[in-house]
Amino acid sequence: xxxxxxxxxxxxxxxxxxxxxxxxxxxxxxxxxxxxxxxxxxx
Length: 43
Hints:
By secondary structure, this protein is mostly helical. It has helices at about 10-15, 20-40. The mean pLDDT is about 80.
């Protein structure tokens, strides 16, 4: 999921259309934070 690959049948563009701009900003921030955590725990 973090890499942006989806197993669902929805395309990423269609999935993003379901969220407001503010929600998309929050989702991207969460994704960035999770990626940072993943890098820390992989060390």
